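Q: For a teaching session next week I want to show students how multiple molecules come together into a single three-dimensional assembly. I've collected the sequence lines for a complex. Could you give me the predicted structure tokens for the whole thing so I can convert them for display?
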Amino acid sequence: MSARALSRLGLLSAGAVAVYVFESLLPTPFPWAKIGLSNTLVVISLFWFGLRGALMVNIARVVAGNLLLGIIVSPAFVFSLLGSTSALMVMALVRWKLVPPLSVVGTSCVGAVANNVVQITLFTALLSWSGIARSLLGGFILLGVGVGFVTGLIASRVLDKVALERTGPVG
Amino acid sequence: MVWQASSGGTNLNRITAGDVTLIALLLLLGFYLLGFGSSDGNRGRTAVIRNMKGEVLTLDLTAERRVVVDGQTGTTEIMIGDGCVRFLSSPCPHKLCVKRGRILRAGEWIACLPNGVVVKILGDAGYDGITP
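A: Of course. Below is the structure for the complete assembly, covering every listed component.
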């Protein structure tokens, strides 16, 4: 990996951690839930540096973010890590295996929905809430589409405006 | 390897017909699943059986079993299983309790007043509240 790519990934990670910690202060219906704006930085990393680079940014974001928030080994941390990592896998799949490819916004929506589905599944499994699991899942799919759309729009705008000279793939 | 950054010549910043289709499908799925929960949202998890002697029996609705309860005039047979409760037999003249059929939602109840046996379904009693 080039020093340039490394420093850019570091900057993206730092930005993602900052947004992650900031948005944990915003009120949500569930105290451990976040809006998901920090995913903007992860989506940008995915399109600039590919799956490996985005995975690095994501793990740095979740570990450092939860370390700062003081909930590093809580269920919220595990859910966050598993949800966002599987979301990244799905986004990479959609980005490079789907023909014709989705745009940044579509990819982001798919990722946000995947993240929510994984987290709600884990959450309802942990609490054995089988009774309301399906409606909860529906609600969080809708939320995922909305948040993914906004996140994707921001990422798309950044990717459009910021011309990044080719650094080459990471790794 | 294909998992690497390259735009491949296409502009991915423009929303495509594929995006719109996919978002519409996800919205449909979300609303479909959202409508589902309300119909079976308040299914009970436990049944409480009481008789006039003050004996109380609390049972899990998922475990299938037949319960025989001592009442004032005889014994009442109650069947529990598959999330439902029903009276199989009771020594009463009108058999209203047996005719009531199955109950499954939290808050529903069946009573056999002549024999003094009451069954009530409780809701999700596992958690009073959740804090992070």
